[in-house]
Amino acid sequence: MFFRYLSFQVPEIIEVAKRGLAQIISQQKLPKDLLQSCLRPVLLNLADHRKLDVASLQSLGRLLELLTNCFNIALGEKLLEHLQKVIVFFFFC
Questions:
Q1: Which of 23, 61, 63, 68 has its CA 20 to 30 A from that of 76?
Q2: pLDDT digits (tens, 9 = 90+) for 10-38
Q3: Count of C-beta atoms within a 10 Å radius of residue 26
Q4: What is d(CA 85, CA 74) in angstroms, rounded to the nearest whole number?
Q5: Are 24 and 32 in contact (CB under 8 A)?
């Protein structure tokens, strides 16, 4: 539930969700299947550059900020590679 609220446009809701998720993460490690199912919608939006918008990127940023210990370096490298392709597409189209 906290993952969904991180993508809201209301700053107060985002802040409460960030604090709640941070507290849960500090107390226990999140199961891999839970992380995958919660992140899937956000990552699917990244897969298609036409679906990208500022809100999606901000939501992803909040997630990555909170879950830095849950990801390996390869995911970060893939995200950067994908975003570089998207940026090139936007500038040259």
A1: 23
A2: 889 989 988 988 898 888 887 878 877 87
A3: 7
A4: 17
A5: no
